[in-house]
Amino acid sequence: MEGAISSNFIGNSIYKHQTKTSIGAHNIFLGQVRADVIDGKTVAAIQYTAYEDMANQKFHDIREAAFKKFDLTCMHIYHSLGTVKAGEICLFVFVSSPRRKVVFKALEYIVEAIKAEVPVFGKEIFEDETHQWKVNN
Amino acid sequence: MNIKVKYFGQIVDATNTNEELVNVNGEQISDLLETLNNKYSQLKNKDFKIAQNKELVSLDTKLNGSEIALLPPFSGG
């Protein structure tokens, strides 16, 4: 989705699951843009671009694998494209299951897979408008 | 063979274009890479993986005419 993911959107996603009463546990991961200080310069925002066709396919593959591996009722993944300022949310992963233990494991699996497999590229924009390309650890 | 090649992230800093058609003499990904290295001198300093038809491939993979993408390290999330 374009730009930051709002708390309103996240809250509304939780609300929409109230009708799914077989769910007993949700787990949510929110990735937030960090104002890293690198060589004395502070990150003001990250501009995200992606190889969208491949990213969508990878999200689909991760989703299929997660449903196969874990007893999930539903899962949702949203990643920002474009500019997200420091302090704003750029990744929202939401998993739901009848039981809590499943969602703890599933969420970590999904977030790590996104970081490793989905072709999204972050350009860190500093306060002085210079930039560097972000690399995941 | 003409191959559509897409560039992403910091690779665009080396190519100054997001995508183009590249004429390749040869049958493998390595042949395409040689062509691109000759065309873009800064590409050798970049770290990237190559996808063919949205799947990562190795240098000895055969070109099949589908879209190629040069993908720098992923940094989503």
From TrEMBL, chain B:
Superkingdom of origin: Bacteria
Pfam families with a match to the protein in the record: ThiS
Entries under SUPFAM superfamilies matching the protein: MoaD/ThiS (SSF54285)
InterPro entries: Beta-grasp_dom_sf, Mopterin_synth/thiamin_S_b, ThiS/MoaD-like
Protein name listed in UniProt: MoaD/ThiS family protein
Native organism taxonomy: Bacteria, Pseudomonadati, Bacteroidota, Flavobacteriia, Flavobacteriales
